[in-house]
Amino acid sequence: KKITLYSTRTCGFCRAAKSLLDNKGISYKEIDISSDPELRGQMMTKANGSRTVPQIFINDAHLGGFSDLYSLQQSGTLDKLWEINVCGK
Fold this sequence. Notes:
By secondary structure, the protein is an alpha+beta fold. The chain has helices at about 10-25, 35-45, 65-75, 75-85, and strands at about 5, 30, 55-60, 60-65. Strands 2-1-3-4 form a 4-stranded mixed sheet. A hairpin with a 2-residue loop joins strand 3 and strand 4 (about 60-65). The longest helix has 13 residues, at about 10-25.
């Protein structure tokens, strides 16, 4: 499973999302859009116009932001989702 996280250097929610993923041992690709308007535009296109960070994608499917990731964690769905995709179940 491939996770992509668009972030900026000064975003507290980005740090929280990365910390949550790190603590779960889930690897991700981070794309810092802090000073690159073109990358921000690409993120917005992929995220259906969302401008805020983080924007998180799982296998190129838009998950949402930190609150969406946190909700998956709280419900136990993140572990199940990750296990299914990592183990190929």
